[in-house]
Structure formats: structure tokens, C-alpha cells
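Extended Data, record UDENN domain-containing protein
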Amino acid sequence: MAELPSGLLEACVVIGASSDKLREIYQLHQHGNSKELPLLEAEVLQVHAPPFVSKETSSSQAIGPAFSRVQRRRSFIKKKKRDRPVDDPVNGESAKNAEASSTNDDISVPKDLDLIALPQLCFPGGLQLATEQKEDSYHFLVFTDLFGNRTHGVVVQHHRSVQMSHESIAQNGSIQRRNSSRLYAPFAICIISKFPYYNALRDCLSCLLVQLRLGRQSEFEETVKEVSAKLSLVPLPPPGQLHVSFSLRPLQIVLPSREAQDRPVIDINLHLPLLCFTDAMLLQVLSCLLQEQKVVLFSSDWARLTLLAESLLLYLQPLSWQQPYVPVLAKGMLDFLMAPTAFLMGCHVSHIEEVAAETDDLILVNIDDGSIQTSWAEQMVLPCIPLAAAECFASRTESLQLHYDLELCHAGAGTDANERRAHRRDWQHRLNTQIQNIALELVLNIFRDVQDYLNYEHRVFNSEEFLRTREPGEQTFYKTVLDTHIFHSFLRDRLNRKIDAYSRMEINTRNSAPRNRVMTDSPRRPPMSELSRSGYSGPEHRLSRRLGASLPNLDQSPADSMKALNSHRLNSLRKITPDTGLKFNQKPVKVFRLPEFPPPLAYHYVQNYYQDMVVSLGKAISATPPDDSSLLARYHYLRGLVNTVSNKRLDALEDFQSLYKTDAEIFPPQMVKALVDSLPASERAQAEKRPELKHFISRIKRDQERERSRSDNNDEEGAIKRFKLPKKHMQLEEFVKCVQESGMVKDQDTIHSLFDALTVGQQKQVGPDLFRVFYTIWKETEAEAQEVCLPASVLEHLEPSECVFKLSSSVKTSRGVGKIAMTQRRLFLLTDGRPGYVEVAQYRDIEDVKVSSAPLMLLRIPSLKLRVRGRKDAFEANLKTEAELWNLMVKEMRAGRSMADLHKDPQYMQQALTNALLMDAVVGSLQSNKAIYAASKLSHFDRIRTEVPMMVPQTTAEVLKHKINPSLELTTPHAVDVLLYTPGQLWVSVSGGKVMVFDASTWSITHTCLQVGTARLNCMLEVDSDQVWMGSEDSVIYIITVATMVCNRQLTEHRTEVTGLTLGTDKYSQKVAYSCSAEGNVMLWDLATLQVRKQFRLSCDRLLSVCNHNGGLWCCSRDSIIEVWRNGSLKHRMSLPEQLKGAGTAFSSILLLPEVWIGGVARSSLKGKVYILDAERHLVLKELHGHADRVTALCSAEDRYALSGAGKLDGKVAIWKVE
């Protein structure tokens, strides 16, 4: 039997008092012997759970209808009936009929349902009889199993008159004995679901009560069972903008879908916490949850407890609460509050004094009056959320419209209840979306910097470095949060590069400055313009920031910070500019209305109902335009689900195949796997005869194997390490790993040179003491650079992105007394006294650097002498013992600048800067006469400049404009597989389906490592402004939505790897797409329907790419270029030119501009070349030498530039000017 996802209803349970106790109390009450009505013990009276109908079949593989997903584990009711007297007179005929109907029934109970605790939770205040009718009361429950899986319940307490059968009471109690008085017993009806549809299930219970009031008491059980069976037929909507609605008289009930696969179902009013708490109090509660305190909610209304608790946890998304969670504690469960772990629980406000007195480590939150207190004996100040994030949150919430009545001021009185409910539902949905975005921004502002301290390769979080950079007043908060389970789970998702709402908002709101620094600065330094804005304005602030790594801020308590938040709100908060990251395009919501329910307890009626649903979904699919692929995918999901439960397996597979191609994000792999495994032999044979279905099934199996192999590495993927200094001697391999984990350097070659430097003259291993000293000096130098305070008169001479990386001691120079400052662009003198700026030299202008000596009385002082282009007099600084080190550093910076200018590659400059700073740390840590010689091991570019002439052919130098390195954040260079330019963006694919996106105006990275499949990508194509197609080695064309950077759709018609994509027009001038695969197949795609219109096959040696040009298709193979007409007939074939033929020579890519650009390798070496051909004469015009490895990819940017990418020995992208 296939395992299907849960439907809306998991079980429906009726709770009440036992018949024996009710009879006893009733008789005492009628005879006037009962002065007070006692509290009774509640017990389970009925359990209704799927399957409600079944069909006898001989097939062991059959999938039963009505979501037959629950095994028949035990009969709860049957056991109760055996233990109960046969002549049970409670509730008259209903008891007899219930006995008769249940004696032979074996009612299944969901395996995770705790029937022992459920009665207490349904009557948390106790089961109390009453002498008068009471209003129905609702509350909500959450059950959590040992694995953290949650189940949700909605409970209604409904009072019914207690009637005894021997008193001849008619239905509804219309005839009574004159002297008898009424007695009302509460019954609780609890609907349990796997999903938190609180509002929808409350509406279902409201409709059920209407039917119970209109029916006879003898029909009570049958009515509850029938409604339960109907709810079990309701399919849940897939993630996205498609809701599901159904009619349960008298209401039309809507099940809202999740907004996305990574977002939870939200069917509550998220603004309730904003109504109950002030901003400061609400932020304090969220702070306690983030720190995993023991939090207890109190209220006089049981319903508020769960609704507020659920809202608070939703505010923390994507952080997921990992601790015990019981939002409603019954009176007999208060001992749960003695648990030693953190938890979130709730109980009645009448117990608040008792709880506070019994325990001393709780956070007590009174929902009714919006207050927070602690149960500690001594007053304790709890750490608050960082002030900047808190201020932003308070500003956002202040602008919300929280009162629905204000929305109705202009509206008339509605006469249609369902229409009024729909209007309120739409208003609430919009408000919930706003609150979700505001809460997500709060979490983002708290943890935005975390990703800067992650090492993805070794799965390390440098927590000490992260804490060191926090403000002093935030230290306590972050120290506590970083050790929590909730943060650990969040950190694991970041290290796994999870694409969720958090990561998407982070990208949308990311400042351009940090993006630029990612691609330019290997060492972490803020630019001087940022330091000047961040408050580095005086020595007092610098001192407190320096001490902040180890001492708390004693001047201001966290409580004072929150007071400041409130006191400054009127002056500052309303002036905050709305962030574009919060402005999401709201897609219109569609509602699919289910057919009217059939009699739900008859098999053939249920099957007809499923058939009606399939027909309705088919009509919806036909009416949906092809370009609305998102909505089409959701209709296919629902129809596949319905076909599955109605045993139409092949139809279901076709729907899931369409879903797989249309929106892979919501594709349910486990359900489809179970469906494929359940196919009987006859249906499997039919599937084998359908090529598309056969290919789909084989792909599902391949995905299963891949998932199985990936699950073997789950422990490794889930592990997170904190960086710790080594405790033993390290060989080279261990040293490389340790340095990479520390975040100092990633490049392996540089780390190898550092290892050689630290082990000069000794055994080839680095001891823990030496590494600790080296690491400390590196961090101290970094901290000192961050504390540099430059006046405006100095800042105006520097570029906004410049950073001071190194300051000398105060020395005498030929141009005054002061400190020599080193930035990534220049050297300048920061004069003593009143700080002033004296330009020393830009690195490209330095002609000569040497160590000299300057006279001082009778001594000669070591000095550094620079000869600068355009200046007569040399610059000399009496650096004394620092002279040799500065000589090495300046030479390396000069050589790096020369290499960067010559090769148009700024990374050379950044690598030289890293080398110079490593030299400084090596000299400081060795403190020996060999220190300078050891540091010289890191003089990489200066050694190249001295030993190898740096020559670039003139033709190359004239055409080459710039270079970028996509592998900068990786430990080793990766081959560039594909390049694509779209307006304003450059897409770069490297090994294993990783895609990086660059801002084309600054060449800074905007999206790191988007994962598209698991195989190598061969080609990319911009289809329109919102779509990028990517062809992969796994024969799939992945379709990326540019707005979200998510791959939702796939084209799977190719049978071998996809190697080329291009756009064209058909004979009706409609835009179409062409794709080609390695074996020579070319397919023509309809962009609206994503269907193949036509295909043909070319005879060639491995087809590499296809390009549309002048009405024809140019196809590049391994040894020739073929021009064909659009119908596939050959027009022209051009073989590899004779002068280019030879060992190791081949075409790798082709680009058609005014000339033909072809990438390949040189004849005499492995270095890459770009050949520019005359398209008319078929001659080579130019040969461009721009890469140290073969050219693997080409693309054009607005026909003004050509871009080339190279193999892994080079791994860079060169940008060429097109003449």
C-alpha cells in the first residue's frame, strides 16, 4: 500500500464524562441530594479516523480511497464497550444505537495519538456539569512526538442536556417531568490534523454543531462520523497561490496554502501578539525564546494560549523551536513546569502565583495584561534584542493597520455571510503577509552577519570572531543565543546554503558595499567610509570597542536600551525609509472549490466524488493559460493526488510527470516513489510502453539512488564545528585545514607558502603555541586597522572603498613625522599631532624599493627608501627594525599592482595584500633572525616579477579589459563551465551545477553558489527577463525564475546531455527556443507551452553548441562548424582550419558577433586561446592569449564585450572589447 500524505483530518475524538458517573450525579441531582456539582473525570467516548470506506480486493498493492494511510493498530472503542455494562441508559436512544453500531466495529486509532492525555487537554480546567445551558467554547492544542513532529487539534466544548431513557424524554427534551430540573453535561469534540488549520477546523466544528442541534440525540455519533468522513476526503493544497475550499453547510470553508515550500501553513491571526503586547514587551518575549529560556504563558482564555504561542514561534521563522512545547497545560499537568530543559508552555492565569512560588527560573508572560516577570528570587535583567534590529521592528509595526473595523468604515452592511467572511479573510491574509515580512526582517537584522563567519568547505562557524565584532551591549545576548539548539539548526541551514525566505530577503536587502568587498578583499576590513559612518569618532569609543571582546558594557543595561527604544521612537523611528527588501510582488490567489460532498460512507459515492474532482481539475487546467505555469503545477499536483487515492496510478504518474517539468519545487518525491513501487505488473508493463512515462520512472529511480547516497552523508552535512585553536603539532594537510577553518586564508597555494614560512629551519610541522601566537597577531593587526580614526581632511584623499590594513610605528621620514599607512591602493603618511595626510606613493608609481640607512648622531638607522615616478627626491622613512618587513611588503604590493594592471585582474592586487599581511604576522610570531627570510617565502608576485618577464602580447593587451575570479570564495580554482550575460548580470557556472551571479556594473557577486541539479551545466540561455534556461549533463533543461533565483521547472525530453541552447523565431515570427544534445539531436521548443514542436538529428562528432544567426542555425561540434536551415537541412560545413589542427587542439565554444569568436587551446601548450575569425573569408584575424588553461566558455555582453571562461588551472573570466 502506498504511503500518502495526511488529509485534512487525522482523527475526530469525542470526550465526555463516563456514563456511570453521569447516571449517579443525575439521580442525586433529581432527588435534591447534590448541593454542589463535582468535577468529573473526562474520558474518550468516540474515535473516528480514516479509512471510513474500503473495497475488498485481491490486489495486495491496492491503494485504498479516503486517504487510507493509517494502519489498524487497535480498537479503542471496542475495548471500552466490553468493559461497559450493556444496559447503559445515558443519553437515551443514542447510547443504545451507539452500542449497537459499535459492537462489531473495529475503529482504527492513529498511531501517534495519545488518548490518555487527550481528555485532560480537552477539559484543561476540568469537566464541570452545569444546571443551565452554556455557550460553546473553543480552544486549540498542539501535540509533539519524540521526534519533534507536531500534530494540531481544535476543540469545542458543547453542553448537552443529560436525559435518561426510562423517563420517556422525547427528542431535544421537549417533554419533561414537571418536578425535574435540567442538568447539562459538556462534551468535547476534538478534530486532530497534521497541519495547523486552526481557523478552518474551528469553522468545521461550528458547522458540525449546527447539524447536531438540528438532529436528534440518537444521531449524535452518526453525524460526527459523517462529518469526519467528509473532512477525510479533503485534499490539502500544495505550496503556492492556490487555496482549496469546500462547503460544509452553512459555511464555505477555505484552506489557505503555504506561501512557499519552506514556509509554514498560517491559518491564524498573526497580529494578536501586537494587540496584546507593546513593542518592547513583545521583543523581550522573542528575545527570551531566542535564548531558549523557560517561558510560561498565562491567560484566562485557553484559546489565547495556543494562538499567541503559535504566533510567537512564527515570528521567529526560519528559526525553528527545538525544545518542549505544550501551549496548553491542564490543571493536573503543572508538574511539567519543573522540567530541567528550556520550554514554552501555557496555563491558566489563576495558577500564576502558585507557579511563581514553586519555581525560580521561569519567564512568566501574562497575555491578559501584556506583562512579563521572572520567578527568580533576585531581580535579573534579561538580555534584549540588539537595539538597531529592535528599532527597525518597532518602526515597521507602528505603520500596520491592526483593526479590521477601520477597514470597514467605508463599506455597507453585508448580507452574505460567506462574502463577509471572504473579505475578512483577504484582509487578514494581507496583514499576515506584512507581519511575516517584518518579523523575517527582524531575524535577518539580528543574524545578517553570521554568514561572514562561516567556512562552508569545513562546516565551521567562527563564533569567537563573530562575538568579538558585536557591540558591547549585545555581547550577552549573542553569547547565549549562539549556544542554543534553535540557532544551531538555523546555522546548519546556512551552511547547507538553503534557499529559503531568509536567504531571499538577505539577497534583496543586501547592501552593495558588502557585496563589493566579497569580491575584492580577502582580509576582512571595513572601508574607511564605513568606519567614519559607524561611529569610530573618538578614542573613548575605540577603547570600549576594543574591550568589548571580553568585558560587558557597564555603562548601560539592556533594559536601558529598551527604554531608549521607546523614548526615541517619535523622533527617529518614523523616519526610517521603507526597505525594498520588504516589497514582494503579491501573486493573485486562486481558490479551487471542491465538489459537493457525497454520502461519505459509501465506497461508490466516494469514487464518484473523486471522479468529479478530477473532471473539475481538468477543466481548471484547460482554462489556465500556458504561461501561468505556477498555477498549472498546482492543479497537476492536486489531480495527481486525487488520481492516486482513487487507484488511477498511471493517470497520477502523468500528472506528477507534468508537475516535475512545471514546478519541481513542490514535487513530492516520497509520494511518487511509493506510487511507483505500488504499481502492479500489468500497469508497470503499460508504463514501459509509454516512452515519456518510462523515462520519468527511470529518472525517479535515479533520484532515489542519489538521495540514498546523499543520506549516507547526512551526519557530515549536519555537523557544525566551532573554530578552536589546535592543541597538537600539525603536518601540512592539518595546517591547511586549520587555516581555512580560521577564516584567515582560503587559497591552498598561499597556505602552503605560509607553512613553508613558519617551518623555516625546523621540522616540517607547526606547533600549537606558534600557531596561537600567529593567529593572535593576525587578529590584533585586524583589530588595530578597524580602530583607525581618520579625520575628514584625510578621508577626502582616499577612495570610498579603501581600507587601512597596516600602520607603522611613529617614525621620522623625509616628509615629516608620523605613521606610514598601507591601503590596497597606496602608501601615505598620517602625520603626528593634528592628523594630516601626506601622499607617499601609489603602488603602480613606485620604481624602486630598498633598505637603506639614515644617519642619527653617530649611528646608522635602518630606513626604507622609495623612488617614485615623477618625483626627484626619494622618500625615506627611519623604520628601524621594521624596515626589512616594510621592504618585503611594499615590494609585494608593487608587484601585485603591476600584475593586476598587466592582466587587467584586480585579484592579483588582493592576493598581494594578503601575502603582505601574512608576512607581517610571520615576522611578529617568529621573532628570530630568520623571520625576514621566512616572510620572504610569501613574496609570490615579487619573485615572479624578478624571475619571469611579465609580458602580455600587444594584441591581447589592446582587447583585454578586465578579469574576475568566480572561485575567489572557494579553496581551489574551479573550471568555468558556462557564461551568460543578461542585462545587468553575469551568470557563471562552475563544477557540479554551482551557479554564481555577478552585478555587471561592478563585477561584484550577488548570488553565491546557486545549486542547479547535481551535474555539470553545459549551456545557459536568457529566454525572457524572468527566465533563464540551463542545460545539464544529466539531460535536463532547468528553468530558473530570475526574481526568486529558484529552479521550479524542468524539461526532460532529451535523452543525453544537453549541450546548447539558443533563441530564434518560427515562420510566424513567434519567439521559439532551440536545444541540442551531445548525440546530435536538435529540438524546437514552444515557449508558451514548453512542448517540443520539431526535432532533427545532425551527423557530427559530439554536438557542442547551437546558435541562431541570420535565419539559420550554426552548430559547433568537436571538429567542425555546421550551418543548417531551420528545418535541419545542411547549408554549410566548415572544418577546423588546417593551421589550427594538431595535438590537443579543439574547439570548445563559439560566439557569433560581427566576427566569429572561438575558444580553444593553443597548439604548443595547454594555455587557452580565443580565436577571432572572419565569417566571410573563414580566416583567423586574431589570437588572444588570456588564460592559463583551455577556454571552456564564451558569451557576449550587449555586443560590446565578449567574455571567456577557462578551465580549472586558471578558473577566471576574461572580459574582451569587441571592435
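Summary. Residues 57-107, 166-179, 512-522, 531-581 have pLDDT under 50 and may be disordered.
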